[in-house]
Each structure stands twice: as C-alpha cells, then as structure tokens.
Amino acid sequence: VQLQASGGGLVQAGGSLRLSCAASGGTFSNYVMGWFRQPPGKEREFVAAISRLGIRVSYADSVQGRFTISRDNAKNTVYLQMNSLKPEDTAVYYCAASPAYAIGRQDNEYNYWGQGTLVTVSS
User: Fold this and answer.
1) Which of 21, 40, 17, 55 is nearest to 88 (CA)?
2) Quick one: pLDDT at residue 26?
3) Among 32, 43, 80, 82, which is least packed by CB within 10 angstroms?
4) Could you tell me if 96 and 114 are in contact, meaning their C-beta atoms sit under 8 angstroms apart?
5) Distance between terminal CA atoms of the chain?
6) Quick check: helix, strand or coil at residue 5?
7) Taking CA 64 as the corner, what is the angle to CA 20 and CA 4, rounded to the nearest 5 degrees?
8) pLDDT at 16
9) pLDDT tens sequence for the chain (123 residues)
10) Any bridge partners for residue 38, and if so which?
11) Residue 62 gets which letter from DSSP?
12) Helix or strand (DSSP H, E) at 50
C-alpha cells in the first residue's frame, strides 16, 4: 500500500492544522493506521493510531485531548486534527499502515510509511 501525507505547514502556537494521509494500492480497511512524528534532532515517536473500522483509538500522552485521529474508509484516508498546537509539536509527521488487528504504538509494528509532512509551530 502507498501512503501520501499532506497538510503540514507553519502555524502559530495555539493554532490548528489537519493532516491527511491518502492510501492506495490496497484494501484500506484491512489496516490499522497510525501517525508518528520526528522532532528535529530526536527519534521518531508515536502520536496516534486508529483501528481498522475506526472504533478504537490510541494517543500519546503528549497529544491526548488536543489531537484527534479519524478515518474515512470510503475515501481511503486517515486524518489527524491537531488543535492547541505547541512549539514542541514541531516535527515531520508520518502516517503508517499496519496489517495487524490490534493497535500498535511501536513503529516496528507498521509495514508501510508515507513520505512525511513538516509541521512547524512558532511561539
């Protein structure tokens, strides 16, 4: 499956952005979808994930209550709505797909990755 992330950009602290990730080449509803991010000079970290049918979600503690992951299986797209953004949210954001049934929080559980989209939050 191929993944194409979009929606990144420059935003002031307190602002909002919505990331999208369009999938192609596979049956989208057969994959758990996740968002990860890699801040400058740091390792990639888990942000959020959503189950195949969108019933279950999981968030990193650092984004809980501010970010919302959702998916539209008819459009083969997963979204990450990011509100109340902070400078520490600055990172390259990646979407990823896992054929597992359970939601994973480790990047090695995901087989397919998008190219990343840069989010910069200014103070």
Assistant:
1) 40
2) 87
3) 43
4) yes
5) 37
6) strand
7) 15
8) 98
9) 999 999 999 999 999 999 999 999 989 999 999 999 999 999 999 999 999 999 999 999 999 999 999 999 999 999 999 999 999 999 999 999 999 999 999 999 999 999 999 999 999
10) 92
11) T
12) strand 45-50
Q: What is the pLDDT of residue 89?
A: 98
User: Any bridge partners for residue 119, and if so which?
Assistant: 9, 91
The confidence score (pLDDT) of residue 61 equals: 98
Give me the residue label for tokens 């049934």. Answer: 101
Phi then psi for 115, rounded to 5 degrees?
-85, -10
- Compute the distance between CA of residue 41 and CA of residue 61 in angstroms, rounded to an integer: 21
Tokens of 30: 């057969």
Distance (Å) of CA 120 to CA 7, 86, 87, 113: 11, 9, 7, 21
Phi, psi of 87 (to 5 degrees): -55, -30
| Residues 47 and 17: beta-carbon distance below 8 Å | no
